[in-house]
Amino acid sequence: MKNITEIISKLLNKNNLSFEESYGLMNQIMSGKISEIKLSSILTSLSLKGESEDEIAGMAKSMQENALRLETKYDCLDIVGTGGDNQSTFNVSTTAALVASCSGIKVAKHGNRAASGNSGSADVLEALNINIDVDINKSIEMLDKYNFAFMFAQKFHPSMKYAMPTRKELGFKTIFNNLGPLTNPANCKYLMIGVPDIDTGNKMSNALRILNKTALVVHGMEGLDEASILGDTYVWEIRPGSSTEKIPDKLASLATSTASLREYKINPAQFGLKSIPIEKLIVNSPQQSAFKIIELFEGANYELLDCVALNAGLGLYISGQSKDIKSGIEISKNNIKNGNAAKLINNLSENY
């Protein structure tokens, strides 16, 4: 790998890093070998240039390898958003993940406190009285017993301590916003990732192709980082290539990827779902978000039913738990209406 001065110079000249260079650079960041001043320059240069799919994929691979690993025998699913949509909606992805786990798929939810919205996944689970600060053994126990575990990013990514001060000081969106969903400590086989814009969706889907993942990337066309109950959602569907040959990191790129990509739009109406005003989705705090989730799960208010079922249904579809999106939505609705989702959060709250 080039030395750090050469890397910074390359970025300042708006040249993209290769997968191998990105991987090596993140290894240095995660080991604390990059000063805050140089890290600030790197993150700023990447943001101004625009992060490439090779940079996202290479850094994600390094971050995941530097995380505490949750080794599990299960083929897990994660439903997660990048954040950054500035819409302040309730925790749709976290709610959908809880519902999806009621179908039998093991959901290893990776998340953090709010960075841009009013309620992060860690915040709302805490508001639901679910312990977010569990260790690896407890996480595996939760998966075994309840098909759901939460991995708090701050706990499972201890090497991020070297980057967090700079990231906070900069105060703007950096490449780390896109890396979180790709660095699940359980190395989930299936991913559903919400993104706030088309450009991010294109980059994330191509990064997932480089990483040879099975994933859906979704963007609500109103600017939401989730599937939209308000109107159209743009979908990128990634399926891994059939080749079992390991591509060396120095050769990994979009050009060498054998993964497939299919792009399409979906609309709530095609699944018989009802649109609701965006105001119904807005919350000002984790407590408000938790209240909406409890109302829904306990059957006191079903106005968010279709929104959650759509997102959970997409997760079930990509993980093979349903034959298509429509049947995934119906399974999700049933798991809310029959009380399974309410029972799950009660079990998680009482036992962890």
List keywords for this structure.
5-stranded mixed β-sheet; 15 helices; Pyrimidine Nucleoside Phosphorylase, Chain A, domain 2
Please describe what this structure looks like.
- About 45% of the residues lie in helices and about 10% in strands.
- It has about 350 residues and is of the alpha/beta class.
- The chain has a single domain (about 75-155, about 175-350), classed as Nucleoside phosphorylase/phosphoribosyltransferase catalytic domain (Pyrimidine Nucleoside Phosphorylase, Chain A, domain 2), CATH 3.40.1030.
- A five-stranded mixed sheet has the order 1-4-5-6-7, sandwiched between helices.
- Strand 4 (about 190-195), helix 11 and strand 5 form a beta-alpha-beta unit.
Shape: globular
Give the CATH H-level superfamily.
Nucleoside phosphorylase/phosphoribosyltransferase catalytic domain
The overall pLDDT average reads 93
What does the radius of gyration come to?
Answer: 19 Å
Class from helix and strand fractions: alpha/beta
The profile of the biggest β sheet is: 5 strands, mixed
Question: Could you tell me how far the N terminus lies from the C terminus, measured between alpha carbons in angstroms?
Answer: 44 Å
- Arrangement of strands in the largest sheet: 1-4-5-6-7
Q: Tell me the domain tally.
A: 1
Tell how many strands the DSSP assignment holds: 7
Which fold name fills CATH's third level, the topology?
Answer: Pyrimidine Nucleoside Phosphorylase, Chain A, domain 2
Unreliable residue stretches: none
Secondary structure tally, helices: 15
Query: Could you state the order of secondary-structure elements as H and E?
Result: HHHHEHEHHEHHHEHEEEHHHH
Query: How much β-strand is present in the residues?
Result: 5-15%
CATH class: Alpha Beta
Helix content: 40-55%
Task: Give the name of the CATH architecture.
Answer: 3-Layer(aba) Sandwich
